[in-house]
Each structure stands twice: as C-alpha cells, then as structure tokens.
Amino acid sequence: MISTLTQHGTGNAHAARLSGPEVWRAADVLSSSHWRIDIDPTVARELAHTARAVLAQGVRAQDTDRARFAIGAAAAYTEQVHALLERGPGFALLTGLPYAQLDYDGQVALTCALADHVGKVVVQNYEGQRIVDVRDDGVPYDHTSRGYRSNKLLPFHTDGANLFVLACLGAGQAGGETILVSASAVYNTLLAEYPQSVPVLERGFHHHRRGQHDPGEAPLSASRVPVFEFHDGLLHCCYNRNPIEWAQKEGIVLSAEETAALDALDAVLAREDMQLRLRLRAGEALFVNNFISLHSRTEYHDSAEQRRHMLRVWMNDPRSRRSGFSLLDLYVPERFR
User: Cα(322)–Cα(317) distance, rounded to whole angstroms?
Assistant: First the structure.
C-alpha cells in the first residue's frame, strides 16, 4: 500500500499524518516475519560458486556488480528485498548467506553483487570506496572521522544514500545491536505531541562535513538540510545530530527553538516501543531504506575470538518513487558521483 497523507491541523503547510506499511512500531513488525527472507542452501552454494568464479576472472572484489555477477535464482530474493524497501516497512533481513564458504574477497564480491541487484552501488566516502569495513579500528568518533571505524554508540541517523546494506561477517562478544525506527511513525508522533518542532525540523540544519571534502571547500553544507520533507506526497528523512552540532565548531549557532526540536525528535526516537532491535549474526544482511528509516548502533566490545565485522554498501535506487537530498553531496567528491 502506498503511503498516504491526511491533513493535520498544525498550521504547517507540510503537516500531515502518514499511513502505510512504512508506519510501524516494534510490536507491529515483531508480530510478523515477512521482512525476514531465508535463502535456500542450494541457492547459497550457487552464490558462493559464482563469487569464486568471478574473482578467478580477475575482477576486483569491490568492482563486482550486476553486469559482472549474475545471481541466478537468488534474483527472486533480491526482488523481495526491493519490494520490502520500496513498498513495505523499509527494511529486509536476508539470512543464510554463504560467507563462511568464502574468503574475504569473496565476501566483498558477493555483498557488492547482491547490493547492485537491489539498487545501484555508489561510492560512499571521500576515499572513493564502494564498500567499507564496519569494525573497531580504534578511531575516535568525532568531527574528524566517520562512526563506522569505532565501537562507540552511534545515535539515530540516516546514511548518505537512498539504501544501504549491512552484511555480517562476525558478531562481537557483547553489544553491537542495530536498532531501526520508522521515520514515518516518528513524524506522526511529533505531529501529535510536539507539533511546534515539525516546522523547525522541516527547515533543517547545516551539517559538518567531517573532513570529507577537497581542500578549499567549505567544511559545512552549503544550505540547511531538512530532517523531514515531502516529494510527491512521500516522506523523505535525513538526520544525524552529531554533524548538526559539530557545525557549531564553524560558527553556526543553534537557537533554543532548534535545540528543543532536536531534543523532541531524540526523545521520540529513544522510546523502546518505537525500536526494532537486531543483533546481526554471521551470514545475515540487513537492507534499509534511509529515506523512511532511522538506525542506531549500541556500543560493542570484541574479544580475541569474537570480533564484530560488518560490510557496508550504499546504493541509490533508480526504481524508487521517493527522492530527496542525499548526504552523498557532502561526503563524496563530485568525480565519484
């Protein structure tokens, strides 16, 4: 069912209550497993075989795409994933992937290929990487770095592209839960309980670019980035409080009204009944639509035997009904876009 808008009396031109399958709370999605897709073991073995064959032809692992890597019977699964991202709850969990049968290059090749069959893989940072390792590299999480290189708590945010996939190669010893929240459900709650925050969030904020830009370029977004906006009546969400607050290092001042709106948003995101909490296991890949979902990660700890290691790929979706500003414009040089 397509998300619909119902006029809501807040005085805001965009204020409207959302409905549709992307409007959910934890109890709604936990009562069903339709978002969990289990790959048949025979299909998984075929994927592993294809990954090894593609690499044997000299293709670089991170360069694999739908043209270089035909996924055969697994195409039915990637189409299910796309349907859930585009017209369902905005996320899907693919399980039974044959990562244990592959070396690291094979794992990278398979992840990139599956991602490119769901959307179109894009570069996701200044360094030009199509895939990144999400693990504890001992790098602090601050305005000079990206959060995926630390083990610290990552507050709720959206990633830079339309879609992303987080593929699990290994779980850590403790912590490291991925938490999802419906942006549409958050929007409805703000309309009902904090209506004064909505126009402020729709006006948006400047973002710090965290060093992901060429020398001489501005360290901040050129204009405000709306947290919520609508295109053709469909919601688009873009949020990360840390780079909003780090913009103050470059002279931006947040007003009391803006701080209150951010606090209201974070208060709603913090409600347990809003949150689907997942601890990904090896062989699972979580696909998420950034435009209608927010996600967080709890702090985690590794041991010598158990180290959390994810592969992250960003994708745009040429088939999507939704559009909106992408943080790719802030963190990826134009030559890679």
Answer: 9
